[in-house]
């Protein structure tokens, strides 16, 4: 499995929404339980700022995985890499640098 080694610019967001099954009863009562064993996988909203020539390397890397194949990535403030997929990314072209906004979804492949 390949490793994504580029570092995002500061300001990464990590929305958290555990996957939970809810059954509602009368009078406002409800029962909650986790859906599956790994019900709290993270999604990382990232931006990378790179020179124009390096953009194509990142784009080729993400394209070759096609939103299907997982790759290793180490989030900031963590020491162990995690397996992620990237299903969408958007480049913004500036004069000297290109910003790539993307979402990495943690997976258990």
Describe what this molecule looks like in 3D.
13% of the residues lie in helices and 40% in strands. The chain is mostly beta strands and 109 residues long. The strands form 2 sheets. A 4-stranded antiparallel beta sheet has the order 3-6-5-4. The chain is elongated and about 60 Å long. The chain starts with 19 loop residues before the first strand and ends with a strand. The model has no long low-confidence stretch (mean pLDDT 92).
Structure described in brief:
With 109 residues, the chain is mainly β.
* Mean residue pLDDT: 92
User: Got a strand count?
Assistant: 6
Radius of gyration: 17 Å
Number of helices: 1
Separation of the first and last Cα atoms: 11 Å
Helix content: 10-25%
Tell me what portion of residues adopts beta-strand conformation: 35-45%
Largest sheet: 4 strands, antiparallel
Low-pLDDT runs: none
The domain count comes to 1
Protein name: Phage tail protein
Pfam families: Phage_min_tail (PF05939)
InterPro entries: Phage_lambda_TipM
Organism: Limnobaculum xujianqingii
Descriptive labels:
4-stranded antiparallel β-sheet, 1 helix, 109 residues, mainly beta, two-stranded antiparallel ribbon
SSE arrangement:
Blueprint lengths: L19 E5 L5 E5 L8 E9 H14 L5 E3 L8 E12 L3 E10 L3
């Amino acid at each position: 499995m390949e490793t994504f080694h580029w570092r995002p610019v500061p300001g990464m967001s990590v929305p958290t929404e555990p996957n939970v099954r809810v059954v509602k009863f009368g009078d406002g009562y409800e029962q909650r339980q986790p859906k599956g064993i790994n019900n709290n996988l993270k999604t990382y909203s990232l931006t990378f700022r790179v020179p124009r020539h390096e953009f194509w390397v990142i784009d080729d890397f993400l394209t070759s995985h096609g939103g299907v194949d997982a790759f290793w990535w180490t989030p900031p403030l963590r020491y162990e890499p995690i397996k992620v997929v990237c299903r969408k990314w958007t480049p913004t072209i500036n004069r000297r640098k290109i910003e790539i906004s993307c979402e990495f979804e943690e997976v258990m492949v």
